[in-house]
Amino acid sequence: MLCIVFEILYVHLKNAHRNWSDFWMSVSLNRSYNLPLNLAGRAFVLSFFFFFFTDVFDEIKCIHLSLFLEEERRMSHMGFRCLEISRWVICGLIGILTGLIACFIDIMVEKLAGCKYQVIKETCDEPIAAGSGIPQIKCYLNGVKIPRVVRLKTLLVKVLGVICSVAGGLAVGKEGPMIHSGAVVAAGVSQGRSTSLKRDFKMFEYFRRDTEKRDFVSAGAAAGVSAAFGAPVGGVLFSLEEGASFWNQMLTWRIFFASMISTFTLNFFLSIYHGKPGDLSNPGLINFGRFESDSVAYYYYELPLFMGMGAIGKVYLGVALHMKMSKFNVSVCVRYVHRPCLQVMEALLVAAVTATVSFTMIYFSNDCQPLGPEHNEEYPLQLFCADGEYNSMATAFFNTPERSVRSLFHNQPGSYNPLTLGLFTLTYFFLACWTYGLAVSAGVFIPSLLIGAAWGRLCGILLIWADPGKYALIGAAAQLGGIVRMTLSLTVIMVEATGNVTYGLPIMLVLMTAKIVGDYFQEGLYDIHIKLQSVPFLHWEAPATSHWLTAREVMSSPVTCFNRIEKVGTIVDVLSNTSTNHNGFPVVVQVLDSDEPAKLCGLILRSQLIVLLKHKVFVELARSRLSQRKLQLKDFRDAYPRFPPIQSIHVSQDERECMMDLTEFMNATPYTVPQDTSLPRVFKLFRALGLRHLVVVDDENRVIGLVTRKDLARYHLGKHGLEELQLAQT
Amino acid sequence: MLCIVFEILYVHLKNAHRNWSDFWMSVSLNRSYNLPLNLAGRAFVLSFFFFFFTDVFDEIKCIHLSLFLEEERRMSHMGFRCLEISRWVICGLIGILTGLIACFIDIMVEKLAGCKYQVIKETCDEPIAAGSGIPQIKCYLNGVKIPRVVRLKTLLVKVLGVICSVAGGLAVGKEGPMIHSGAVVAAGVSQGRSTSLKRDFKMFEYFRRDTEKRDFVSAGAAAGVSAAFGAPVGGVLFSLEEGASFWNQMLTWRIFFASMISTFTLNFFLSIYHGKPGDLSNPGLINFGRFESDSVAYYYYELPLFMGMGAIGKVYLGVALHMKMSKFNVSVCVRYVHRPCLQVMEALLVAAVTATVSFTMIYFSNDCQPLGPEHNEEYPLQLFCADGEYNSMATAFFNTPERSVRSLFHNQPGSYNPLTLGLFTLTYFFLACWTYGLAVSAGVFIPSLLIGAAWGRLCGILLIWADPGKYALIGAAAQLGGIVRMTLSLTVIMVEATGNVTYGLPIMLVLMTAKIVGDYFQEGLYDIHIKLQSVPFLHWEAPATSHWLTAREVMSSPVTCFNRIEKVGTIVDVLSNTSTNHNGFPVVVQVLDSDEPAKLCGLILRSQLIVLLKHKVFVELARSRLSQRKLQLKDFRDAYPRFPPIQSIHVSQDERECMMDLTEFMNATPYTVPQDTSLPRVFKLFRALGLRHLVVVDDENRVIGLVTRKDLARYHLGKHGLEELQLAQT
User: Fold this and answer.
1) What is the pLDDT of residue B296?
2) Fewer CB atoms inside 10 A, N or C side of chain A?
């Protein structure tokens, strides 16, 4: 119960901040009323204050350039080799831990589902963690910081949440939380410490910066997919499709390694649990059973049919409804269901409705099938049927969704009658839509697959001459593809999860058709969620018709600049000014005997300035106290990623008059562009190099503006050409 | 015969230029004695002169920036959509054509192999086209221009060559040429014209620039892999692993589409050819047969064994020997076997030795197996055996290598005796090494797989309790992985080609072990070939210990700059100067009333200047002839990719005194870096943005140097830290 109470608080906090524009207000609110409630004893509310100012990704490496170069130079060839080895070790650990988590979830769900089956009761229907986590991980990999997305606490809550939700019979899947868990494990292991547990293992200190951390989080997400579907290659592709802007071969191999280890660990422990130690050919957590290959799997005249299935309006409808429903839910959660208890009530309501509807459906359906020797059910339900028969509607509703999918794929033709399938599709579809918007650990994969498999099988039955199981597979792919829109990785995931490459081509065709048709009407579900949260998410390319926009029109101007040797008072004032919460500041040098504007000589980040202020690295003090320890890279690393806020740093009136020399700490070679650079070119620089700030200079190298992610994410290709979005101001 | 003669000339030309440092000398030589010999009637010798000056990749888009922007502005939203649709259409065409080529090759090889089987004679043992083509395509995708690598003639020669080589019994495979064919098809289709055939279809003119062309070539290479192995996902990954530095989702999908269409076309036509129209579950050209899944495919205690197989010295030996042999061959070809007829003799010799050795082996082996009802051979050979038996050594030697691999994978335990396998492995290994270096259309995949399968099966037999077919698969993966080192794509290709995902994990493990062990000793085969040709190939990351190098130390300096308005005579002199064959020239603007050095205002390419000179875009002429047609983007596109050499452009003495205004044609916003930028940062810019020239400026925006690919490719991490390679000067 403790974790449930805790989680409700957590969800509450999360929702309160979903609307980023309310940020300042809510921070002050949270600080006052949430601190006493924090069960784990850590003031995490305080800390996420700083998350808004740590968007440093690429630059952190360069910001203390001289320090960094110094370290690199001291490092021998051997040193680099050790680093490389630690990267592999970390990826191995990520794989093992993610595999173990998957194993734990699987065993717990099995146990609880077993319980449920025996007593037909709903034991754990309370909400535990909010959302699937995939949109958040997508944003993180894209380079957007979301507060607390990779914390240990999030992991615990996710794992418990998904176990209870899945076993509790809600229309949810476990893959979203698995991916999120993998990411959290990666973020934790790679840093060699846990700020939540207040333990620092003094390991992997080199990796305490955003670029490295993001790479490991990619590996974690891949390991999560791999464990969820037994699809290591699919996992790698998922990470790449969502995260990578710069394809790096070594990184890809490490990600691949983590995926592989994760599947291996899961299979190893599951094989022991199932009493068949050593049998590693067991696929992942979500296993659709193997499609045994016939001599002729499909004919070419079936392909247009498959593509038609991919294209049908169902898919569009699916997304549209999903969106409407979850928009409704999000707004309801944020605006009205602020109270945790109301959220619990909502989840209970959904669970109750789910149960009621299911029982009603089962009662009124007369689809009783004989319990033959060839049936694939582990737990056939006799409910309202004669002896020696089982209720196929009950099979679809009361198994774990995964098992229902498997039975839809593989049961003999005739196991389901069309009416059952039609009713089931409709009912489950609405339940799934409602559930997805709930504040529950939920994946959308499995419910979509189940809905798709149901109507696919229905199509197959109506076509008479076809194998309904095959059509169930195609329907599942179409439904899922229409909703999540990840063509390449999804194909591989489906192929790996069904254990048969023969169906690769039709699955691809279906997914592509679903994507093309879907994109025509509506964005994918995850993109819609990302848009709802209005984060500066950069897409793959600049909008097509944006060639006429130049850096001059896009940039923010004027820019707050610092001098190379700047007064402490000025710095503190700028950092404390809440109306200009920039994170990067160009450093300029004034030509002494002229009125000319200052020339750019570097770029410094808010977080760096804060560390400098905290350690009082002032010119005057350095002179007076020669023995003072020089600021080292370690000081920046220890502060990462939760830099203190400017308010917590006390600067006396005397100190305000001191000077700070930024030369040694700034990035002396920031990326710059001339003001006439076109938007696609600027965009490409951001995307390819993972930039967060780009200084715009004139031909005399004078600063005239600064482009940030937000400036780019504003532009969007709408129905009527280029549109400018109104992004939330943070 | 005509094509054979032609090909010998082709190969000859190719080899003559392999040594890039001899380039200038050989160009003059070739021009004098090869022109009369050119059978197809086109002076292609002349044209590859210019290939050295067209390394424009990214910049071409921006070089005539104002022209380009003008076009983009004129283009509506609909226009962009049409472009997008044409990209998909082109990818579809690429897929279809590659599939057809694969189909043609397959049918021809089958037919010829059938002939050979019936009459046991070697019909087509002459060399037809040189090398596998994979190293060349790797270089092309990396951004290095190799003369004539994507010409129509290359395609014809490759296709005929591979048919004759494979059917002729040489120890070669057909996948390298397939990949190359795909790339050529892509380059041809996407440009909407063929300069070889002198036809311009006036289509796809927008795509006549290097960035677009390279994207389509990636799609072609993927389609080639896909057709060769029936592995569409593997194809996409191959393209990405070799080519992509900037992962773009839309591009990936188009590549995927091309791969898919290619497999589909191949299967569609093959199914018709084989009299089973509509059966599309047929995998690609190279098909290892389906591994039917047992309940327990492998045990975890077998994994270390598999990894051991991946690691064994064989792999290292393989590469080392391969390298030695092919180095020997390359040098022999270049230095001594200059005469085409000698190359023919060498190939004939190899063919003769292959045949002799095979017969000797078959004669002395007594491995006669009973011809049971369950045997998988289509053409069992009775040679020297009693009736009702077949000679298993002959099976291994005289089938197409692909069919031999299949029989090693799938034949019943006991089909081969260990002595046969051991002898076969050794013999075939040396034959394959020798053949690979020949001037013949050759792939290294299939021979490696065959060798690996043979010793893998041998291991399996020696282990007694194991399934030899499984070990044959693992051995094949280990051998191939040790030689070509493409972990991710290779895993997927193997999984797709064997049609069973269960073996995914062991294959991965084996490939990774093989890669790690192999990398410790030696680079992969393709990398060795690339190194032998000393092209400026950029790896994924800058060498680890290069942080202390800055742009100032790396750049070429001083740089030839042009003024914004420059005298024609100066331009002609600079372009004609063979000692400074730069391709990019910074454009500077002089401050009128000062002695200060000039400031950077743009970058212009050699090819652009040549087009300008050719069209006589001089300031004076523009004034006198107001009616003169304005130079358009089309003029640049028509000249692409074979820009005329400066020598062919006649500039009179009067015209030399004219001025040329470069403002409208230069790239006004070239990428620049300050001189203190570290090497890894410069490297990342090049790799991520596909740059070819980067201007180094001081803090006054004055040009102080230029970094090119060659400057970066020089640095290399050797055994003793950073080493500077001596790259051939072009």
Assistant:
1) 46
2) N
